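Input (structure):
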C-alpha cells in the first residue's frame, strides 16, 4: 500500500479513518445506525501544511453523493477528489479521484475505482467486490508498467477506502464508550487492512472561521513511514449530530504538521451541531 504518498494523506485526513493500518485478520462490525447522508450531499475540506512558522493551504478534498444504478440495481455513487492548489503544484502536484458504487440497503461495495496523479506518479485501479464468494478482484496499472491483477480474501465486513468513510459515519456513536476502538476492514491493492478508530468523548471545537461546533473527538496512531513517525498521535473532531461530519483534523508528520478543516457542507440530511455562529 502506498501509505507514504500524499494522496493517502489527503484522503485519510479528510475522513474518519485516521488510524494505523495492520495486515491482521479480525472480525469487523457490520451494523450501523442507518444512512446519515442523502442524495446530493457535498462536503469539502482545506488541507494546510506547516513548515516552520508558516501555515500554507496546500489543497482541497471534496466528497459527494449521488443516487445511481450499478449492475441494474440501485446504488450510491460516492466520489472523492483531492487536488493541490496551483500555488502548491510547483512543489508537488496532486490530482486524484476516488469513486465507488455501493448497495443502498447495506452499504456493501459493488465496484471501486481510483485515479491518481502525484508529482508524475500515475496509478489506475479498479476493484470488484463479490460478497457471495468473499473475494475482491482488482487490477492496477502504475505509470507505464504492465497491469497487475490481484484477488483478495475478505475479512469480516470488508469495505473499500471510500465506502468505509460512509459506513463509519452511519455508526451509532452515542453507544460507543469513551476509550473504545471501532475496527473497520478495507481491501486495497493486494491486502486487507484493519483500521481502529478510538473514541475520546465530546468536546467543543472552534473552527478557523470562529464558528463553535459540538463534536465527538477521536484519536489515532498513524502508520510509521515516510510521512508519520512511530506512534504519532492524530486527532479528529466530528460533528455531534446525525451527519457525523469531520470539522477539524490535526496531525504531526516527519517534516512539519498537517491540518484539515471543513470548508463547506451542502445538501446535508440534518443540521450541523453549531454551538455559536461566527
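Output (sequence):
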Amino acid at each position: 500500500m502506498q501509505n507514504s504518498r500524499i494522496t493517502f494523506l489527503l484522503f485519510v485526513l479528510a475522513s474518519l479513518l485516521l488510524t494505523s493500518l495492520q495486515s491482521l485478520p479480525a472480525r469487523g462490525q457490520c451494523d450501523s445506525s442507518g444512512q446519515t447522508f442523502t442524495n446530493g450531499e457535498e462536503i469539502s475540506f482545506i488541507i494546510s501544511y506547516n513548515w516552520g512558522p508558516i501555515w500554507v493551504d496546500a489543497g482541497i478534498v471534496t466528497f459527494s453523493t449521488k443516487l445511481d444504478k450499478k449492475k441494474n440495481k440501485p446504488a450510491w455513487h460516492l466520489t472523492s477528489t483531492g487536488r493541490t492548489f496551483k500555488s502548491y503544484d510547483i512543489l508537488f502536484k496532486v490530482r486524484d479521484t476516488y469513486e465507488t458504487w455501493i448497495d443502498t440497503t447495506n452499504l456493501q461495495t459493488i465496484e471501486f475505482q481510483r485515479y491518481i496523479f502525484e508529482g508524475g506518479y500515475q496509478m489506475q485501479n479498479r476493484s470488484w467486490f463479490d460478497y457471495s464468494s468473499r473475494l475482491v478482484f482488482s487490477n492496477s496499472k502504475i505509470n507505464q508498467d504492465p497491469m497487475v491483477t490481484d484477488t483478495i480474501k475478505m475479512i469480516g465486513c470488508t469495505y473499500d477506502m471510500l465506502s468505509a468513510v460512509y459506513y463509519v459515519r452511519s455508526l451509532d456513536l452515542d453507544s460507543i464508550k469513551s476509550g473504545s476502538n471501532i475496527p473497520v476492514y478495507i481491501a486495497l491493492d493486494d491486502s486487507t487492512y484493519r483500521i481502529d478508530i478510538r473514541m475520546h468523548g465530546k468536546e467543543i471545537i472552534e473552527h478557523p472561521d470562529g464558528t463553535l461546533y459540538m463534536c465527538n473527538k477521536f484519536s489515532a496512531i498513524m502508520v510509521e513511514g515516510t510521512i508519520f513517525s512511530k506512534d504519532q498521535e492524530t486527532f479528529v473532531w466530528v460533528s455531534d449530530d446525525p451527519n457525523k461530519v469531520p470539522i477539524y483534523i490535526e496531525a504531526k508528520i516527519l517534516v512539519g504538521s498537517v491540518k484539515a478543516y471543513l470548508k463547506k457542507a451542502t445538501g446535508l440530511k440534518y443540521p450541523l451541531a453549531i454551538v455559536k455562529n461566527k
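Notes: Residues 1-29, 222-231 have pLDDT under 50 and may be disordered. The chain has one domain: 6-196+256-266.
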